[in-house]
Amino acid sequence: MSHTPSLPASRYQRYATTMSATHLKAMQDHARQNPEEFWLEQARRIHWHCKPSKGFRGSFHGDVSIKWYEDGVLNASVCCIDRHLTTRGDQVALISHREGRPEAEQITYSMLHERVCRLANALTDLGVEKGQRVAICLPMISEAVVAMLACARIGAVHVVLFGGFSAEGIAERLMDSGAVLAITASEAKRGSKTVPFKQTMDEALLKCEQKSTVHSVLVVRTSEAAVPMLPGRDYDYHDFVDTFEPDFVPVVVSAEAPLFMLYTSGSTGKPKAVVHATGGYMVWAAYTMGMVYAQQPGDVLWCTADVAWITGHTSVVYGPLANGGTTMISDSLPNAPHAGRWLDLIDQYKVTMLFTSPTAVRAMMADGDDVVQAHSLATLRLLGVAGEPISSDVWLWYHDVIGRGKCPVVDTWWQTETAGIVLGPVPGAQPLKPGSASTPLPGLELAIANTKGQIQHNATEGSLCIAGSWPGQARTIWRDHDRFCKTYFSMVPGFYFTGDGAKRDEDGYYWITGRMDDVINVAGHRLGTAEVEDALATDHRLLESAAVGIPHPVKGQALIVFAIIRKDATTQPTEAGIKLLVADTLGRYATPETVYLVPDLPRTRSGKIVRRLLRKIASDEIDSLGDLSTLTDQDIVQILCTAVHEKK
Ligand code: 6R9
């Protein structure tokens, strides 16, 4: 925990009109005393075709069942668009900036309505039905937002896939989700690199062979480059979609109908698709973004997350649009073509709220204060981060240098499974502590358990759990409810287990210490070390491997691989080859920082690899290796230390 003094709520006067400390306290009391009434009240933040009369129904015990607002009926695209048409049809809903184009596109709520309806008609024409899955694999372009909302409009379930996944990774997810249609782009530019979206999708579909259920592919042409199209399967997005009517009667669904599923990493190899339900998710997106970001007319919120992550779903699309705000997307990089590129865009598009990752803040910090000082940044009034721990010095730099000391910094802790902010300050209503994700939003009760699964009270440290459900909670893991129950509800019976460690101080503020399982967080991307090891196991020249995360000054954590080559291998795997194998299997984002080819790994007498030790060795912290007496072979430690040291 940091000893940096906290910053009083009164410092952020501009937020005083949004919510006072008294109002926040009243909400917290109401939520505790009458949760059913509290959550039904929050449900009024969105538009319902039939208003719900029930709040939560279900249990965290046994065959876990989670239902919210089950008698409510709605359509998520209506909540995000139609609802605002009479009051703010001409207000900009989406600013879409594309690097290399002179001006960003300003898409009003009316324009968004037209585009979403055309695509809803096109998808229906192609035979997509309510409940079916549609895979969306697009760069940060307006069609990505339109595609998500069009799926919602026809009651289909979107599965947004990250453009950084390999063909293998996409194929696996297409087959697992049973997607019937895919929406992709020809290619995307990332700085000087070209990302071949369509080519990767084609390869993925080839890999699926007979197992793919995808019958159609819509392709957004993002450049002049020629794209091979398969007649009868592939359609040019605009040539096809723009011919359809700009109106579509929304398909209403019951609150528990799935809105989307999203793949995320866990501590076992296979990625899992977390399923989110329409009603609860929409209330949660509106509530959490309304409490912490509280967009006012004129605010431009730029959340730099890719739509393929939960932050992209809730803080780029559903939250801001449900609340009638203006949201911005951009396909730019923070430091290409030059350092300070994102700062240019903040000034150019008068961004008032910036929401990014600690990795991006650390990268801006590394570029130096001069780059920041060369920009006005006068429109900014709120700064946010999520995705990984932010240290108090980086928090303060963000606050003092980017925010010029006048913008509150909101560090929000949440997960794909929580769908929206769980821990985060309500700016103007409570003090901010640099480096802390603050306190739970009203209606959420957090708990800290010790290693035996017992709940600890007052100031303490342990595993972070959530007592009781919240509307945005994931309902299940697609086609694997057992895994859902085991992963999240078996560690501390009756509680949702987050997988993160946390400290709670005497004021009830939480300080996240990081994952406690074998999930690492590289630049805000969750990665299971087992996924990496499974990928390496496909190279039969490798006997065994171990992947660990170690601290990295910019990315938060870096992925390090130790691999043992089989003695009988006829050819020698190289470090570069191993990196490529991981990138090909999982995606470029998972490329290991360093690979060590080693004769063995440190093991306990029962044969378990001692990862704690590998982390220390890989970070070159050889003075604090601790007790080595439980190892079968202590000499291996010295050999690994030398291997690491030689590379430094
Ligand atoms: C929103 C998102 C979830 C994991 C989570 C935790 C880490 C997220 C954080 C944070 C420290 C924060 N995490 N927010 N750690 N401080 N403010 O990132 O979802 O991709 O599912 O990752 O990210 O470890 O468990 P997701």
From TrEMBL:
<feature type="domain" description="AMP-binding enzyme C-terminal">
    <location>
        <begin position="531"/>
        <end position="608"/>
    </location>
</feature>
<dbReference type="InterPro" id="IPR020845">
    <property type="entry name" value="AMP-binding_CS"/>
</dbReference>
<dbReference type="Pfam" id="PF16177">
    <property type="entry name" value="ACAS_N"/>
</dbReference>
<dbReference type="GO" id="GO:0016208">
    <property type="term" value="F:AMP binding"/>
</dbReference>
<keyword id="KW-0547">Nucleotide-binding</keyword>
<keyword id="KW-0436">Ligase</keyword>
<feature type="domain" description="Acetyl-coenzyme A synthetase N-terminal">
    <location>
        <begin position="25"/>
        <end position="80"/>
    </location>
</feature>
<dbReference type="GO" id="GO:0019427">
    <property type="term" value="P:acetyl-CoA biosynthetic process from acetate"/>
</dbReference>
<dbReference type="InterPro" id="IPR025110">
    <property type="entry name" value="AMP-bd_C"/>
</dbReference>
<dbReference type="InterPro" id="IPR045851">
    <property type="entry name" value="AMP-bd_C_sf"/>
</dbReference>
<dbReference type="InterPro" id="IPR000873">
    <property type="entry name" value="AMP-dep_synth/lig_dom"/>
</dbReference>
<comment type="similarity">
    <text>Belongs to the ATP-dependent AMP-binding enzyme family.</text>
</comment>
<keyword id="KW-0067">ATP-binding</keyword>
<feature type="domain" description="AMP-dependent synthetase/ligase">
    <location>
        <begin position="83"/>
        <end position="470"/>
    </location>
</feature>
<protein>
    <recommendedName>
        <fullName>Acetate--CoA ligase</fullName>
        <ecNumber>6.2.1.1</ecNumber>
    </recommendedName>
</protein>
<dbReference type="Pfam" id="PF00501">
    <property type="entry name" value="AMP-binding"/>
</dbReference>
<dbReference type="GO" id="GO:0005524">
    <property type="term" value="F:ATP binding"/>
</dbReference>
<dbReference type="InterPro" id="IPR042099">
    <property type="entry name" value="ANL_N_sf"/>
</dbReference>
<keyword id="KW-0007">Acetylation</keyword>
<dbReference type="GO" id="GO:0003987">
    <property type="term" value="F:acetate-CoA ligase activity"/>
</dbReference>
<dbReference type="InterPro" id="IPR011904">
    <property type="entry name" value="Ac_CoA_lig"/>
</dbReference>
<dbReference type="InterPro" id="IPR032387">
    <property type="entry name" value="ACAS_N"/>
</dbReference>
<dbReference type="Pfam" id="PF13193">
    <property type="entry name" value="AMP-binding_C"/>
</dbReference>
